[in-house]
Amino acid sequence: MFEPVSRRRDPEFPARSTIDEFATDFGGLRHAVPRTVHRMPSAFPSALLGSGRPMTLRGAGHSCDGQTVTDGELLVTYAPDTTAAQIRELHDGLIEVPAGISWYGLERYLNRHGRAVPVLTDYLHASVGGTLSVGGIGINSVRYGMQVDHVERIQLIDGTGTSRWCSRTDHSELFRFALGGLGTVGLIERVVLRTVPYCRDTHVHRRYHATPTELVEHTEQIAQRDDADIYCASMRRGKIFSTTGWRGNGSRRCGDENCAIVPDLPFESHPDTARPVAPSNGHVRLWTDYIVPAGQFAPMLAAVETLRHRAPLNGVLTMLYILIVRRPPDTTSFAFTPVGNAPISIGVGVYTSVHRDLTATTATRRVFRDLLERCCELGGRPYLYGVNNLDRALAERLYGNNLDQLAQLRAAYRLENINAHLPLVRAALPT
Ligand SMILES: Cc1cc2nc3c(=O)[nH]c(=O)nc-3n(C[C@H](O)[C@H](O)[C@H](O)COP(=O)(O)OP(=O)(O)OC[C@H]3O[C@@H](n4cnc5c(N)ncnc54)[C@H](O)[C@@H]3O)c2cc1C
């Protein structure tokens, strides 16, 4: 049978904790029960942000390193059931949506109207606002870049409760820092997104690779060509395979057993609802992704390969997942997105399932830190939804002046109490 193109069927695929929806983040790494939970749309976000009280912002809570965990006040935007009615169709394929809608609900809606989201991530029950606050990369990124590359404007609420529309031309600094910025410059309330025509079928071609070197060569080749519409690869349980695809059902490229025409690929084996499945007993999922400019995939993968056969990674690694990201021509230089200014990049996701004890998690985090150093040396960036030990020195090397600008924006817009626990925010504090 034709295997899935994504990591969704992985038995280690993480899901929300059944213990207490608000007690832990998706990785299960940090625990804290919030004192107060405010849920949108019933909560009035301007009043909450303008109150000056410490506040943590959360979408669906799928980030992996305590980004949305607090024992204080939590503002939850994720409202997949109530927000579809708030979609507004604009002109020229633009669509305005509340940040709390799920990608699943949005894509279903768009497909019914002959449109589609250009880039979808692997898991569709995250919130639009939460994913845009980290970047958004998927199998279509080889054609369309990051999800944030397709945002026309966002409605952002600052720490005084003031709401304003930000775009590449209006409040452009806020726009540049909000998308991929982990909620550090305010709450994204509504979003105007570009869409593309809906195409039901995808021609999917699957290929096995004998060695990591072969995978590297193949991936770099695909990155340099511009004819693929989808690409991903994975290394799991000793097997290495890649998937390349083209929109439409043209039989031209078909012809061997590794080809298939897949209808509605984003929904293939995707649950209709976000099922609560507990993480494996006594384990936490520590995930991280490193995105390096094309041409640097070999040394990045070599660094991972060297470490993955040694303790502690050899016992905990579940999968490596590889994506190509080709930025569109009108690209914005976002401050903290996983892809910086490189036109074409390659991401390596390193996914582990670790015993829930301090020694084991600390050891894995230490390895991640070494990999992050290597990623930085290669001109890459980490994906901030994951587990990344950021301190001031490393953050400066990764983000340069953006750190000081973040501190200035947070002061100017009275955001000191919003998501103040994040390592990125701490790294940006004046020394
Ligand atoms: C199973 C799984 C599969 C994944 N697959 C992919 C993938 O293929 N590609 C990919 O790119 N990513 C992937 N991710 C990562 C995922 O995109 C991020 O975890 C994303 O943040 C999820 O959205 P969320 O609604 O859960 O955000 P949350 O985790 O709730 O929030 C993320 C960050 O954004 C902030 N935030 C949330 N909502 C808002 C808002 N409205 N305004 C301002 N700030 C806000 C939060 O404070 C937090 O810092 C995956 C994650 C999981 C768990």
What descriptive keywords fit this protein?
binds flavin-adenine dinucleotide, five-stranded antiparallel sheet, Uridine Diphospho-n-acetylenolpyruvylglucosamine Reductase, domain 3, alpha+beta, 431 residues
Task: Walk me through what this model shows.
The chain is α+β, with helices and mostly antiparallel strands and 431 residues long. Among the domains are: 84-197, Uridine Diphospho-n-acetylenolpyruvylglucosamine Reductase, domain 3 (2-Layer Sandwich), CATH 3.30.465; 397-428, no CATH class. It is built from twelve helices and 18 strands. Helix 7 (297-308) packs antiparallel against helix 9. The longest helix is centred in the C-terminal third of the chain and has 20 residues, at 358-377. Residues 9-20 have low confidence and may be disordered.
